[in-house]
Specification:
By secondary structure, the protein is an alpha/beta fold. The chain contains 15 helices and 15 strands. Among the domains are: 284 residues, HUPs (Rossmann fold, 3-Layer(aba) Sandwich), CATH 3.40.50; 54 residues, no CATH class. The strands form 5 sheets. Strands 4-3-9-10 form a 4-stranded parallel β-sheet, with helices on both faces. A 4-stranded antiparallel β-sheet has the order 5-6-7-8. The protein has a 3-stranded mixed β-sheet with strand order 12-11-13. The structure holds adenosine monophosphate and zinc ion.
Length: 499
């Protein structure tokens, strides 16, 4: 049963001015409906989004999901909510490859660094990548390895309540004890059992039971003592435990990519609701669709991924954000160079309209009233689209509609009153900012052309280095230094900056 806030129906968004009626609708994957957004506590939102597994570089698929939630966060804040945003860091527990080998252990031996240094490195790189994309950092990024005691306590409680059982150092959740199992993913237990990819653990009572605590092997990189022997937590328990710790037993929004619905989120529900006595764990489940490449999900395991670092060498952050924003978060996106180029061009045309606006001289132009009306209309259309389950393509369309009117104005007039110009620029800055786009910012020194030329140079230098032509490669670096450009060679390729 939902507490308090549902009783405030009708008294929506009391922090808005009187008469400013609005209602945000979100699509809840559990109910399968577009529901009015009414948080558990008036004016406050607790949002938990499953974070990355940090053993390798972040790719564009990750960016798809985290940019979507970044925009959702920005919109909630714009609507006046005070949001607590939690995104965990999975640094243990979700790591076994099909072969049973631990991914962190495997990667740390490949890179010849300690397992903890490996997760530290990729967690930092993940933050750097997200910072480059202008993704707002969560309020808390709790790490699974920092919450082992909390997880052990939760597992113990689940055993006491009869939802879990221990066999030979492993603890499993007994899915048959949780009657609602499957309510999110709508998969029944027989289908789940049939779909089990891996050999079923012989100690499980039911094939679809899942691990809460795993007995460690000699080779496992991280392990801790527990009431059931030395081991480490299963993947799912970290999110139930950390969301409860930092938000509460019930949370407003829980998000992640579509692939997490089953088994991860299904298992999170089972654990959390078993622990709290069936209080609904999450009010609104939000899931993003995949970024695809050649018709398949972009994924580390499929080897068809483009890292964010690689993408950022070619396209600036605004282009990447624009590319993702042009599609609704619940629709799949196709990655291709062609689609990214298209995004770059569309964004450029929008920015050009703004550049032309900036050049207008400050005196009243003809037919300003029409444009003034359009500003109001654009804001309304933008807000309406965003209130409709964060419809970013609709929001972008309102900006493009406006830019067409603006273009027709600037093609006829050389001037505009400073007040109107300010108003339009403010609108672009604010609305663009909600999508994380810096529409009104001047290009940094050198602009996009220099970015592209540097990209070509860096690539050519990489080719030289591959062939062992170090002298030529060093000469390029030295010449660039003379020109005031510093090259920084990193494992994923070089980056550059003006000195
Ligand atoms: P992982 O690091 O694989 O656990 O993934 C972290 C988050 O990124 C999860 O919410 C995934 O669903 C999401 N994700 C991974 N690949 C993609 C993709 N190709 N498209 C959209 N989201 C993705
Ligand atoms: Zn999770």
């Amino acid at each position: 049963m939902w507490p308090a806030a549902d009783r405030h129906r009708g008294v929506r968004f009391p922090f808005l001015a009187l008469g400013e009626q609005m209602s945000l609708k979100v699509y809840d994957s559990l109910s399968g409906k577009l529901d009015e957004f009414l948080p558990l506590k008036k004016g406050k939102v607790g949002m938990y989004v499953c974070g990355p597994t940090v053993y390798d570089w972040a790719h564009l698929g990750h960016a798809r999901t985290y940019i979507a939630f970044d925009i959702i966060l920005r919109w909630l804040k714009h609507r006046g909510f005070s949001v607590t945003y939690i995104q965990n860091i999975t640094d243990v527990g979700h790591m076994r490859e099909d072969s049973g080998e631990d991914k962190i252990g495997k990667k740390s031996s490949e890179e010849k660094i300690q397992p903890m240094a490996l997760v530290e490195k990729y967690m930092r790189e993940y933050f750097r990548d997200m910072d480059s994309l202008g993704v707002i950092r969560p309020d808390i990024s709790p790490r699974a390895t920092g919450h082992i005691i909390d997880m052990i306590q939760a597992v113990q409680k689940l055993i006491e309540k009869g939802y879990a059982y221990e066999v030979d150092g492993n603890v499993f959740f007994d899915v048959s004890k949780f009657k609602d199992y499957g309510k999110l993913s709508k998969v029944n237990t027989e289908e789940m059992a049939a779909g089990t990819r891996f050999e079923v653990h012989p100690d499980k009572r039911n094939p679809e039971d899942f691990a809460l605590w795993k007995k460690a092997k000699e080779s496992d990189p991280f392990k801790w003592p527990s009431p059931w022997g030395v081991g480490f937590p299963g993947w799912h328990i970290e999110c139930s435990v950390m969301s409860a710790k930092y938000i509460g037993e019930q949370i407003d929004i829980h998000g992640g990519g579509r692939d997490l619905k089953f088994p991860h989120h299904e298992n999170e529900i089972a654990q959390a609701e078993a622990l709290t006595g069936k209080k609904p764990f999450v009010k609104y489940w939000l899931h993003t669709e995949f970024l695809k490449i050649n018709g398949e999900k972009m994924a580390k395991s499929l080897g068809n991924y483009v890292t964010l670092r690689q993408a950022l060498e070619k396209y600036d952050a605004d282009t990447l954000r624009f590319f993702f924003t042009s599609t609704h978060y619940r629709s799949p996106i196709d990655y291709s160079e062609k689609n990214l180029e298209q995004a770059r061009r569309s964004l450029e045309s929008l920015k050009n309209s703004i550049m032309l606006l900036k050049r207008l001289t400050p005196s009243k132009g003809a037919k300003e009233e029409e444009l003034e009306k359009q500003v109001k209309k654009t804001r309304e259309e933008f807000e309406k689209a965003m209130d409709d389950d964060f419809n970013t393509p609709g929001a972008l369309a309102s900006l493009f509609n406006f830019s067409r009117t603006l273009n027709s104005f600037t093609s006829k007039s050389d001037s505009m009153s400073p007040e109107l110009k300010e108003k339009i620029l403010k609108m672009f800055e604010e609305l663009g900012g909600i999508l994380g786009l810096r529409l009104t910012e001047e290009k940094k020194a050198g602009g996009e052309l220099v970015e592209r030329i540097m990209g070509i140079l860096i690539k050519a230098r990489e080719e030289l280095r591959k062939k062992g032509e170090w002298k030529a490669s060093d000469e390029i670096r030295a010449e660039l230094k003379k020109a005031g450009v510093a090259l920084n060679d990193e494992k994923v390729g070089a980056s550059w900056k003006f000195e």
